[in-house]
Amino acid sequence: MNVRAIRGAITIPENTRESILEGTRELLTEIINRNAINPSDLISLIFTLTTDLNAAFPAVAARDIGLVDVPLMCASELEVPGSLSRCVRILAHLNCEKANDELNHVYLRGAKVLRPDLVK
After folding, report:
1. Which one of 46, 73, 75, 95 is least enclosed by Cβ atoms within 10 Å?
2. Phi, psi for residue 17 in degrees, rounded to 5
3. Residue 87 and residue 111: Cα distance in Å, rounded?
4. Cβ atoms within 10 A of the Cβ of 5, count?
5. What is the mean pLDDT of residues 24-41?
6. In angstroms, what is the C-alpha Rg of the chain?
7. What is the CATH number of domain 2-113?
8. Angle CA(113)–CA(34)–CA(77) in degrees, nearest 5?
């Protein structure tokens, strides 16, 4: 097994607990489904939010979908002028046999502008 990392991001329509958790669940589910990830292969998940999102910890969404044994961490993104607002990002570390070029990074909604080269 190799350690790999998968990235993803999604924009959130409003700074509410419901919106943050719904968007994070959507993104995390897409990452898992598109990469056929077995939850037992997850090593850790790092969530970041832009500073305009503070109504909930996105890690709660991971627990909501059953990822109870995976170490999780939340952090704030840097405030860079002109950067994308209301965005949750995920960096998922996992054990897998896939090569880096076989991984499917997931960018949804307005976050597609962050990495158009990776959007499928």
Report:
1. 75
2. -55, -50
3. 7
4. 14
5. 97
6. 14
7. 3.30.1330.40
8. 40
The pLDDT, as a whole number, for residue 1 is 83
Predicted TM-score (pTM) above 0.90: yes
Distance CA 87, CA 108 (A): 10
The 10s digit of each residue's pLDDT in 45-72 is: 999 999 999 999 999 999 999 999 999 9
Token code pair at residue 91: 């960096």
Structural domain boundaries in the chain: 2-113
Assign 3-class secondary structure to 43-95: EEEEEEECCCCCCCCCHHHHHHCCCCCCCEEEEECCCCCCCCCCEEEEEEEEE
Asked whether the beta carbons of 49 and 120 are under 8 A apart, the reply is no
> 89: annotated binding-site residue?
yes
**C-beta separation of 10 from 108 below 8 A:** yes
Structure tokens at 26: 């959507």
Residue 7 among known ligand-binding residues: yes
> Where in the sequence numbering do the catalytic residues fall?
7, 63, 74, 77, 89, 107, 115
